[in-house]
Amino acid sequence: MNRLITTIILITLSINVGAKVLDKDELLNEFSGQYISISVGDKTYCIEATESGFSPINTIQECQKITDVSIMNKGAVCIEDDETVCKKFKRTSSGTYWGSENKIELSQSLEGLEKVFNKSNDNDSSENKGKEYYAKAKKYFKKKNYHKAYEWAKKSADLDYKGGYFGLGMAFLKGYGVEDKDKEQAIKWFRKAAEKGHTSAQFRLGLLLMFDNGSEAEKWYTKAADKGHLTSQNNLGYMYSKGMGSSIWGDNKKAYQYYLLAAKQGSGIAQYNVCLFHYKGMGGAKKSNKIAEKWCQKAVDAGYGKARSLLEKVKSR
């Protein structure tokens, strides 16, 4: 099977970093006496921390109304408004987060907490400026003026804009506008963009970590794949089929699921693999020459030449 399954693979370099998850005692000790705001999409939750627990703040107009907030024994903070959502506080080099994406800010007083909302208006302005600078970086890149492209990407990144971070990652990955290629720097900047939800950065980060840090690569690929990124879906299929990441012994069921997602988007490689899975009856795929033939034909029509020999084998059975 390993000889037949193919996909896109690129050689990578990895760097080992992780977030520190705070437990219940750390939450109570570190945040006691402070006011916490958590940005979640277009909502902001406001919480008061004491030595004994967290309680909601519903007195500030801009704060999302909270029915209850509690800390579970293992440290997850549960916030209830229309529904209850529980996530752990994680500290990374770029700040503390509720879950992986919802950044928190701390204030020493209610007045300080109110200033957070004024600050968010400033952040909106910074984001617009960051987007503008990144657009300039892309224009210079198209003109092959890589030094100028790098300068504007750096200005964009300095304003905490995810596109600017991605631009810097590409600069160091390809050696555009910098002295030399530097994969560690590329990983650093892609990670910053990925943490802010940049899909292409999540894919690039997965790619660079794929062989040496499979579990983290799997994490970032999954985020991109779940947003429809085709190559991330393909590469996850490969990882699960080979026992990389969390699937040490392999997981053909997940491999099939991700190959199928990519196949439905028109990937010839994925269509070939879906054909193979149905031909072999692997990973929960129904063993069926008829279904296998359909997918092999699609792969051939998509220009994936290797599918021809498998198609002939399927038809001969």
Written description of the protein model:
- α4 (162-174) packs antiparallel against α5 and α11 runs antiparallel to α12.
- β3 and β4 form a beta hairpin.
- The chain has two domains: 20-99; 137-316, Tetratricopeptide repeat domain (Serine Threonine Protein Phosphatase 5, Tetratricopeptide repeat, Alpha Horseshoe).
- It has twelve helices and ten strands.
- A seven-stranded antiparallel β-sheet has the order 1-8-9-10-2-3-4.
- Helix content is 52%, strand content 14%.
Q: In the CATH hierarchy, what is the superfamily of the largest domain?
A: Tetratricopeptide repeat domain
Number of helices: 12
| Average residue-wise pLDDT | 88
How large, in whole angstroms, is the Cα Rg? 24 Å
Low-confidence stretches: 1-17
**So, CATH architecture of the largest domain?**
Alpha Horseshoe
Descriptive terms for the model:
317 residues, alpha+beta, Serine Threonine Protein Phosphatase 5, Tetratricopeptide repeat, 2 domains, three-stranded antiparallel β-sheet, 12 helices, disordered N terminus
Could you give the topology of this structure?
Elements: E1 20-21, H1 24-31, E2 35-40, E3 43-49, E4 54-56, E5 68-71, E6 77-80, E7 84-87, E8 89-92, E9 95-98, E10 102-107, H2 110-142, H3 146-158, H4 162-174, H5 183-195, H6 199-209, H7 214-225, H8 230-242, H9 252-264, H10 268-280, H11 289-301, H12 307-316
Antiparallel strand pairs: 1-8, 2-3, 2-10, 3-4, 5-6, 6-7, 8-9, 9-10
Helix pairs in contact: 2-3, 2-4, 3-4, 4-5, 5-6, 6-7, 7-8, 8-9, 9-10, 10-11, 10-12, 11-12
